[in-house]
Amino acid sequence: MPVRPLLLDADARQRIQHLAQFAADPAHWFTSMRRSLGFIPGQHPEYVVTISSYRCVFTWTEAKTVVVRQLSASVPAPGLLPHVQAVCALATEFGLTGWDIERNNGAPPKDWQWHKGQHSIAVWQVIPPAEVVAAKEPA
After folding, report:
1. Span 59-63, average pLDDT
2. Model pLDDT for residues 84-121, shown as the tens digit of each residue
3. Contact indicator for 51, 12 with CB cutoff of 8 Å
4. Which one of 38, 112, 116, 136 counts the least CB within 10 Å of its CB?
5. Model pTM?
6. 116 contact partners, CB below 8 Å, separation of at least 6
7. Which residues contact 47 (CB under 8 A, 6 or more apart)?
8. In 102-121, which positions are buried (b, 16+ CB within 10 angstroms) versus exposed (e)?
9. How many angstroms separate the Cα of 35 from the Cα of each of 47, 83, 111?
10. How far is residue 30's CA from residue 94's CA, in Å, rounded to a whole number?
């Protein structure tokens, strides 16, 4: 099966950083209230960036008692999923921590939650409470 290239150049990193900063603002967090109103982040361009041919949807999501960084990555090919290591590299760029391609054959860290859907791979990691508190403090 062919592997899609992932180019993480300066432009790609800048666009990822822009989305990551947007999503980290508590005013833009994906909350249970937004979910109950039918809000779907992937339908809102401000939560989406395409890197190479990988469509990335990124949020900070309130999930009961924690806040998580959540990335969903898909490719424009029906029935195909993005390569796991490409998703790990993208997740790292979005701020998920602990992945090292040299360790565990590039597998995701144990504290990353992982879901393979029909068209995408979603990965999320709990954000440390101190970082959540800092994000809520006025700049």
Report:
1. 93
2. 899 999 999 999 998 988 876 777 888 999 999 888 99
3. yes
4. 38
5. 0.91
6. 81
7. 19, 22, 23, 28, 41, 57, 58, 59
8. eeeeeebbeebeeeeeebbb
9. 15, 28, 24
10. 16
